[in-house]
Design brief:
Length: 445
Amino acid sequence: MTVNNYYDVTKWKNGDPYEDIGRVINSIIEDIKSRQTESDINQGGKPGSVIYIPSGDYHLRTQVTIDISYLKIMGSGHGFVSSSIRYNLPEAEWTNLHEIWPGGSRILVDLSPEADDRESAGAAFYVERNGNPRISSVEFENFCIDGLHFIDDGSGIENPENTYVNRKTGIYIASAQDSFRITGMGFVYLEHGVTIYHADALSIHDSFIAECGNCIELRGWGQASKITDNLMGAGYKGYSIFAQNFGGLLVASNNIFPRGASSVYFDNVARSTVTGNRFHSFYPGMLVFEGNCSENMVSSNHFLRDNEPWSLMLECDNGLDDLYGLLCIRGDNNSIIANHISEAVSVSTIKPSGEKPVIIRVVSGRGNYISGNHIVATTAQRETSDSCFYAQVDALTNTEQRTALAVITVLVEKDSIQNIVLDSGTDEQVILNKTVNAFRAIPGI
């Protein structure tokens, strides 16, 4: 007997996937559920299915609702292209562009959530199932979710396409789940790329999540998950990576672009690892530990903070000043070890004017270990351009003719005691109470 658990959305009997792929996928899921009704047939019974999305543009006007395990939705290309660059070009120039819209297997989110709707109303994919066991092994692979446009949010931004607000989400997972995978995906122009509650053994890997208000949000609580090998960057109001009440999270080998308000924001996260990442930001608060973050390791990362070079975005920032700290730590027994931290900014952009920027700031907690961090602080002449790509490349690669910038490499506030700070700044660069904290300075040259 042949059982077909593979579906092609372009060949399904109900609906037109180009007009409303959401309706088509929901119909396919209902078919799977109608066929896989028994939970135990010869030690099997509900193997799930694969739903395939060929390359093409598919409007989504109906939210996809997933409540079955072992479902894989896959496409033939993540299709990312910068919508921000396009929207900040005069529309008369669009005819000269090789491509105008994202491509690959692309889902166009045509939902219109209102301000008073529940937060999940604008999600292209909504996953929820209660009871035991938890929903498991749902996979999203190799297609693009495009939020299309941002909207005027009343903030006064001249171009509404730069607000990062539209109340749309790519994937929203509302219930506890196990072993979900998001791999090789593209997310663009969504206020929330991926929002997940109560994750266990989650893998978000090798995806391109950019020009979204927020990229990855792990909410509620969770454990034993990983965010690896992704390229991503949030808007100036949101987070590239946010995690709440999490244990055992691995954040590794990601390349995080500006302009996120924070590259990594942990709230009550414990025993997790941030390692081998490249972080780039235009603002302080690149890495924030809020609440009681304890026994986390931040090691072997490259942090770069410089000035916004794109003239169209000069009016935007995350609202923090340079005394906040590039890395702002609250919590106990965290290790900040062997990171390379570069600050290359124009003196005229430092806020408050005349102050020394703070690189690592320990606000509260005890037993934190800060050791062997190489901090390079230099002045840079602020140069701006109307070209986003060329302006950023020039800013990144220009390291000549710079002078040393006076900074506070480590600031341990009075509410934080019994910390150890080694080889992360000279005696003049580190501020702490040496009667309640241990300190070893880098020797002067």
